[in-house]
Amino acid sequence: MKNTKAMKNSKDNFLEEPNELERGTGSSEALLEPFPEFKELMEESPMRVGAHVSIAGHIYESVDRAISYGCDCMQIFSRSPRSWRAKELAEEDVIEFRQRRQNAGIDPVVVHIPYLVNLCTPDPQLHARSTAEFTADLARAASIEADFFVSHVGSHKGSGQEMGLAQISSALRQILTQHNSEVLVLLENTSGSANSMGHTFEQLQAIIEAVDMPGRLGICLDTAHAFEAGYDLATAQGLAKTLAELDRCIGIEHLQVIHANDSKTALGSHSDRHEHIGKGQIGLEGFRNIVNHPLLRGLPFILETPHDELGGYEFDLPVLRSLRK
Ligand SMILES: [Zn+2]
Ligand SMILES: [Zn+2]
Asked: Which of 65, 107, 185, 285 sits between 20 and 30 A of 159, alpha carbons compared?
C-alpha cells in the first residue's frame, strides 16, 4: 500500500488542463488516453473498491460484512462513533480481526475518527478531550494494523480560521509526536458547511504546513464533499482542474484514499448529503472519469453511500466496479 511513487515522476502528463480541441466536446476520452509509458502501469493497477462497514457485535465481524459485499478494501470506526465513551478492544478480538482481514486479502484497512472529535475547537476542554480521543483512536487503529486513519478537520465554532488552524496544528503535532506508528493519518476534505474547516485544498495545505512534520500527514478525498465545496467532479474538465489544484496546493502523491460518494446537493452547496453512485449530481459519467483517471485508478475507492429503498452497498459496489475500463 501507500504506493503512489511509481506514478509521481510523470504525473504532470495527467495534470494538463484540456486543450482547445478537447474542451466542450463532452468527451472524456481524449483526457484519459494513456501516455504510452503509463499504459503498462495502469493495466497493473487492479481496481480496489470497498465500503465503510459496521463493527456491530465484535470488531472482526466487520471483515465478514466487507467480504459479503465483495470489498477489496474497507473502512470502519474502531468504536461507537457518536459517544465519548469507548469500549476497549479485547486482545482476542484484535487478533481475530487481523487474521480474518489477512485471510480475506482486504487492503487497505482504513479507520475513521469518531464524529465528536474536533481538533479545531476554541474550547480548551473539548480540545484536550479531542486530542486525547484522537490519540487513543489512532492507537486502536495501530493495534488492528490499519493502514490509514482518516480524520475530519473540525469546526472553529465561530472563532475564525486562524484560531482553528492554530488549534488543530498544535493538536496534530502533539499527537504525531507521541504516536509514531505505521498508520498514516489522512485529513479528509469537507463540504464547507458553517464554521467547518478543510473544504479547500489551500486550507488542508495550511494545516499540513503548520504541523510541519513531513511524511506524517496525507489526504483522503471525499468526492461528494469536494463537489459540495465547489470542485466540479461531474465533468472531465472539472476533474482535471480539481486534480491540478490538489497537486499545486498539496501534491497529488499525498492523496491516498478516495471516499466515493455521489452528492444529493448541488455543486458548491456546502451541504453534505451523500447519494448512491450515479443517482446524484456527480452522476455516472463523473464517476466513470474518476475511477479511470490515471492519477486515481491506483487508489482505493471506499463507499460511504446511503442504505435506503434503493439498497445499500450491494447496489453501489457493482455500479462503481462496472465503470472501470
Ligand atoms: Zn469522513
Ligand atoms: Zn467521507
From this structure: 185
The CATH code belonging to domain 46-322 is 3.20.20.150
Of all helices (H) and strands (E), which one includes residue 197? none
| C-beta neighbour count of 162 within 10 angstroms | 10
* C-alpha 305 – ligand 2 centre gap (Å): 9
Query: Residue 132 C-alpha to ligand 1 middle, in angstroms?
Result: 19
The bound ligand whose nearest atom lies closest to the alpha carbon of 224 is 2
pLDDT above 70 coverage of the chain, percent: 86
pTM of the shown model: 0.89
pLDDT of residue 115: 87
Name the residue ranges covered by the structural domains of the chain: 46-322
- Residue-wise pLDDT for 162-202, tens only, equals 999 999 999 999 999 998 888 999 999 999 998 899 999 99
The three-state secondary structure class of 65 is helix
Other CB atoms closer than 10 Å to residue 293's CB: what's the count?
A: 18
CB of 283 closer than 8 Å to CB of 320: no
User: What cell does 238 get?
Assistant: 472539472
pLDDT at 73: 98
The pLDDT mean for the chain works out to: 89
Among the bound ligands, the one closest to the CA of 259: 2
Per the listing, cell 487474521 goes with 99
For helices 313-322 and 283-292, give the axis angle rounded to 10 degrees: 60
39 CA → ligand 1 middle, Å:
33
Q: What's the chain's Rg over C-alpha atoms? A: 19
Contact 204, 238 (CB under 8 A): no
For position 80, what pLDDT does the model report?
Answer: 85
Spell out, as residue ranges, where the chain has pLDDT lower than 50: 1-9, 18-34
C-alpha to C-alpha distance for 292 and 200, rounded to whole angstroms = 23
Tell me which DSSP letter residue 250 carries: T
